[in-house]
Design a protein that fits this description.
mainly alpha, 7 helices, single chain, 0% strand, 2 domains
């Protein structure tokens, strides 16, 4: 399992531009769709945990999936595979970039990469939003089902607006969302007892 996880994350890390968020659709395709190591719901939960935990989302997801699939050996294989390509590529670029950064071809290449990186980051966000909204309400007898199903979208929009327009630190938005979710779940559970 060490080598399977290492090879999977090595391929993803080598051919992904744009960092951890751009890796998310490739990780989902490999570990959920192709290999079936975890299901889609567990993947969505893993992304939420990886974002909330300190550190890089790619490394956090490698830790989660590695542990889930192969224990400590899986963690070592997945993390090494996720980190090694970036480390080697950045090391190589750092050795030559100062000499080449002023070349027009290099500047043009970076300008061309930027829109692709934005698309790579936006694609998994839309896919995750669609998956979260498709999730059925666990208790169809609850009143206001439509509101309950729209809640993830509303929370996402409010969080994005707070961060973008309100310049609120994302850490505070995440913590507030966790606290509000715990309060709402406690109220709903108390009503059903």
């Amino acid at each position: 399992m060490f080598f399977q996880l290492f090879w999977t994350y090595l391929k993803i890390g080598t051919f992904t531009l744009g960092g951890g968020y751009a890796m998310l659709p490739l990780i989902q395709r490999e570990v959920v769709d192709r290999k079936g190591w975890i299901d889609e719901e567990e993947y969505l939960n893993m992304i939420a945990l990886a974002q909330a935990a300190p550190g890089l989302i790619a490394v956090n997801s490698a830790i989660f999936i590695g542990w889930r699939v192969g224990g400590w050996r899986g963690v070592c294989g997945a993390v090494l595979g996720a980190v090694l390509p970036s480390f080697l590529i950045i090391l190589a670029i750092a050795m030559v970039f100062s000499e080449w950064k002023e070349l027009p071809a290099v500047e043009a290449a970076f300008k061309g990469i930027r829109p692709a990186v934005v698309a790579l980051i936006a694609a998994p966000l839309f896919k995750l939003a669609k998956s979260a909204l498709k999730k059925p309400n666990p208790d169809p007898s609850l009143k206001g089902r439509e509101f309950a199903q729209a809640t993830p979208l509303l929370v996402s929009l409010v969080a994005a607006l707070l961060i973008w327009l309100g310049h609120v630190n994302p850490v505070w938005v995440i913590l507030a969302t966790i606290v509000l979710t715990l309060i709402v779940v406690a109220i709903v559970e108390r009503r059903h007892k």
